[in-house]
Amino acid sequence: MTPAGGPSHPGQKILAMDELLAVRQRLREQGRSLVVCHGCFDIVHPGHIRHLRQAKTMGDVLLVSLTGDALITKGAGRPLIPEELRAENLAELDLVDLVYIDQNSTALSMLESVRPDVYIKGREYESNNDPRFHAERKAVEDGGGRVIFSSGDIVFSSTALIDSLGQSMDPFHSRLMTLLENPELSSDRLGEIVAGFRGKSMIVVGETIRDTYVLCDRPDVAGEGPMLTLRPLETRCYEGGAAIIARHAAAMGARPVLVTALPDDEEGAAFERRLTAEGVEVRALRLPGPIPEKQRFVVGTQKVVKVDLVRPYVLDAKQQDRLVEFVADARDSDVGIVADFGLGLMSPNTVRRVCTTLRSRCSFTAGDVSGSRANLLEMQGLDLITPSESELRGSMRTFDEALPAATWRLLDATGVREAIVTMGPEGLISFDPMNETAAAAGGSFGTRLKAEHVPAMIGAAVDPLGCGDALLASASLARASGGSALASAFIGAAASCVQAGRMGNLPVSATDLRRLISRLHATNLTFASADVVDAAAQTRRVS
């Protein structure tokens, strides 16, 4: 029941003080009693409901007053819900007749003005010595009212509940939110780094691969035997391998030169024309045979069969020298990348020679491998390597050692300064020197390396192919653009996220990175009025 002449719609239950006093006067004239409950009511939990239900039985009309946002001192991020929405939540309850937002630190002023017949407090206040509560009790009793403690048969703490929500949050999401508070990863700073990609020169050395996706109809079982039957519907081809690294760089605003091998025929010429149109300069060693191709047969978004149409390269000594000459003849560049996909273009000795040449021509050098025949340990003296955990462990032949220790041994064996180790759905870890003095003295990995975990930014990958290539291109450009090791790893993780979210080996652009960075920084839940009002007053961050 609502008071005579009082509000009937939930929104009309929320009253200002003058309206509340008018209703209180009518109740006195009608001989009806007023019960008051007061609190924060940030989360209306079962304990609140029972508290309000008991309060409702103590009189005719139930008024719930709640503390305004500015006066809540329960910790960072509180209140979780702004005062307007907390009031609306309470007004929607049939148990509640009136709602008042109190802009004072305690309910004392409201109680002195309203003079309720009954003031209900939780059982925990029965033995409470807080002088603020004693002042409230005195005001109620001086006004002729009574203070009653609720049964307390079920006790919940909103603060404890909110804290437990934070503790039970997906730890990867929690880690990502923590990272975003780092000034190195502010939206403005990351935007500056991505803007720095434009015009950066790059040399990319490695095999070109054609990634072919054969999109198929729903599979069936062959009538002639227990084997899978696929009916192709569409074929899509992508320039992969070292080519996609260069394409990523071009899409991000850089000026890449691709040093690779191509057939001396129309297939090779057409490939070169396509990359030139995308802003990639191609310097190709002409070799017999087609471009290595990897076919993937896809049903929906699920790859069901992979066919490697690959004939490994066999280079003679003169061809190996020519490949290194292509690198040496390229202009001095901001970034040099060597990508060994294990298809025979670079022998272990050629990898070492390419790394040496890149170090002499480029301000920042990086490398990565793919495949069991790749030569990770031959990537000597680079600034950065970005292997997967399995590639790192396979190269070092260490499968039980802690990852930081294994990474430290890899960096020690190669003379590489930094590493970004990818771990699939678990994200990546950036390892960089923590203490040059300790490093020079040969300290343990614990004193030499700083490790920063960056979680995967996508829940489930649509297609993980090419994520490492996107990371390598973007992280290298970020490092060359003044980004810290952490910021570069974060941007690399963002590029991987963009790549993983779509089917096919497509280049990630600077715009893609900016959009994702902006979205990550806007993921905190906010509340806002539909009216044009002060954003600071209407928006609250949920952490």
Quick structural gist:
Helix content is 38%, strand content 22%. It is α/β, with parallel strands linked by helices and 543 residues long.
The tally of domains stands at 2
Name the CATH superfamily assignment of the largest domain.
Ribokinase
Distance between the termini: 39 Å
User: Structural class of the secondary structure composition?
Assistant: alpha/beta
The global form is elongated
Number of strands: 20
What's the CATH C level of the largest domain? Answer: Alpha Beta
Largest β sheet strand count, sense and barrel closure:
9 strands, mixed
CATH topology tier name of the largest domain: UDP-N-acetylmuramoyl-L-alanine:D-glutamate ligase
Model description:
- Helix 10 (266-277) links the parallel strand 11 and strand 12.
- This protein has 2 domains: 10-165, 3-Layer(aba) Sandwich (Rossmann fold), CATH 3.40.50.620; 173-521, UDP-N-acetylmuramoyl-L-alanine:D-glutamate ligase (3-Layer(aba) Sandwich), CATH 3.40.1190.
- Helix 17 runs antiparallel to helix 18.
- The longest helix has 16 residues, at 485-500.
- The two termini are 39 Å apart.
- It is built from 20 helices and 20 strands.
- The model is unreliable at 1-6, 441-446 and 524-543 (pLDDT under 50).
- It has 543 residues and is α/β, with parallel strands linked by helices.
- The chain has a 9-stranded mixed beta sheet, sandwiched between helices. The protein has a 5-stranded parallel beta sheet with strand order 3-2-1-4-5, sandwiched between helices.
